[in-house]
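Re-run with default settings, no changes from the original entry. Doing this only to confirm the output is reproducible before filing.
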Amino acid sequence: MDEFNYFFRETAHGIICAHTYQYEPDRSTWIFEMDEACFQGHGFDGLSEEESREILAQLYAAELAGHPLLLNRSSGAASRASPAGNWSHGGSCCWRRQGVGPLFGRLGHQARDGVRHRAVEAVVAHAETSVERAFADYEAARRTICEVIQHNADVSLAWFEHMGRSWDMEPLQFAMVVMCRAKSITYDN
């Protein structure tokens, strides 16, 4: 894939959406979204990664155009992440995942590579004072934007979990709903 694409498939068990985008000249990421009923209906909850890959490769054979789906051990149910109460403790960053508790060492809090890069810059810029001060300054400057990005990701994920609600729309209306699903893009902007 040389551009970002969505490929929707209506199956006997529900709708599956493949998000695809290139990350290097000969490789693309494929992320498959579906609701729980579709996931279970296809039996993905009891299949190995290889078995799941085979089903998805068959469903998307036309788009894959003879290219294989490669595995990277990232299958599983969606999980939402949210910033911990404090982003740092001592010299470590904290991140809280629902049902898991604090995780340490995740500088940048899964927001975006650019945010992580700025976090590293903040640590370097404040190395003369302390790592704790660098983390505190980073949190003060970045918490809001990280929370906005994470909120938009959660709203987008929720739309994909219920995309069947929009499936019967006219194609242009459906495309607009897909584009506006996280509420950061609107008809006006």
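The mean pLDDT is 79. The beta strands are 5-11, 14-24, 27-34, 81-82, 88-89, 92-97, 101-104.
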